[in-house]
């Protein structure tokens, strides 16, 4: 079993996700207390996919988020750097002609400039060794006027919720993961990466620095998760 650390070396992170791929969706549902589905609905609504659009779902994992986006009639490229996650995704959604699975590194995307009407990334940016470089890549492949939506774990908005959430990450989540996951040690990394991740305002600043405008965020579940949005400006 492999476990990445906060150096976030791509090979180690990819191998770790390969290990957890088969039970990933089940474990997510358990560890989120059922909120994972609600966060996915909010993300899909924020992306607002339209029929015929081409959308990049980066860090798509097993394709659950991609399937949600594709219900609109949009063509979704489900990209991830874990072959194991993509294999599970193809098993689940390979018969959907609107979903295309592609192995890709977030810091060097295999797509041309201005290719996508919208780009989105759920719970993946935190695992990238150079998140600002990944945001620059997302900007590059987004069409002018296109939109970005980032859903990521964040900082709870009140001290009471923060205290309870930190206790959950350190004590309760490892216990649940040992029951549900094929690699419970990976969820120790998950807790560490959440605690080390910057607050909402910092991520919003990174998205602006990448070039997006009209950047805003909305807290979900009292700030346990934050939904960030922005638009690539039209040429002047």
Automatic annotation (TrEMBL):
The keyword Cytoplasm does not apply. The keyword Cytoplasm does not apply. Keywords: Menaquinone biosynthesis, Methyltransferase, S-adenosyl-L-methionine, Transferase. InterPro entries: SAM-dependent_MTases_sf (IPR029063), UbiE/COQ5_MeTrFase (IPR004033), UbiE/COQ5_MeTrFase_CS (IPR023576). One of its GO terms (biological process) is menaquinone biosynthetic process. It catalyses: a 2-demethylmenaquinol + S-adenosyl-L-methionine = a menaquinol + S-adenosyl-L-homocysteine + H(+). Its EC number is 2.1.1.163. This is Demethylmenaquinone methyltransferase. PROSITE patterns: SAM_MT_UBIE (PS51608), UBIE_2 (PS01184). GO terms for molecular function: demethylmenaquinone methyltransferase activity. Methyltransferase required for the conversion of demethylmenaquinol (DMKH2) to menaquinol (MKH2). SUPFAM superfamilies: S-adenosyl-L-methionine-dependent methyltransferases. Belongs to the class I-like SAM-binding methyltransferase superfamily. MenG/UbiE family. The gene is menG. NCBIfam families: MenG_MenH_UbiE, PRK00216.1-5. S-adenosyl-L-methionine binds at residues 62, 80, 105-106, 122. It is an enzyme of class 2 (transferase). It comes from the Bacteria.
């Amino acid at each position: 079993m492999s476990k990445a650390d906060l150096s976030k070396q791509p090979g180690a992170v990819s191998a770790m996700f390969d290990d957890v791929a088969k039970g990933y969706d089940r474990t997510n549902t358990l560890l989120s207390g059922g909120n994972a589905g609600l966060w996915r609905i909010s993300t899909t609504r924020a992306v607002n996919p339209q029929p015929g659009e081409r959308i990049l779902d980066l860090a798509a994992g097993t394709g659950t988020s991609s399937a949600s986006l594709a219900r609109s009639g949009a063509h979704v490229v489900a990209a991830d750097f874990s072959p194991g996650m993509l294999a599970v995704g193809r098993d689940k959604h390979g018969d959907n002609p609107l979903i295309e699975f592609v192995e890709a590194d977030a810091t060097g995307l295999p797509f041309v400039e201005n290719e996508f009407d919208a780009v989105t990334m759920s719970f993946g940016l935190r695992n990238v060794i150079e998140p600002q470089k990944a945001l620059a890549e997302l900007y590059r492949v987004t069409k002018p006027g296109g939109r970005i939506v980032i859903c990521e774990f964040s900082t709870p908005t009140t001290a009471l919720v923060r205290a309870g959430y930190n206790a959950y990450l350190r004590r309760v989540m490892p216990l649940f993961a040992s029951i549900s996951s094929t690699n419970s040690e990976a969820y120790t990394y998950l807790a560490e990466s959440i605690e080390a991740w910057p607050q909402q305002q910092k991520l919003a600043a990174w998205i602006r620095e990448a070039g997006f405008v009209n950047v805003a965020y909305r807290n979900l579940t009292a700030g346990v998760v934050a939904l960030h949005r922005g638009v690539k400006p039209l040429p002047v």
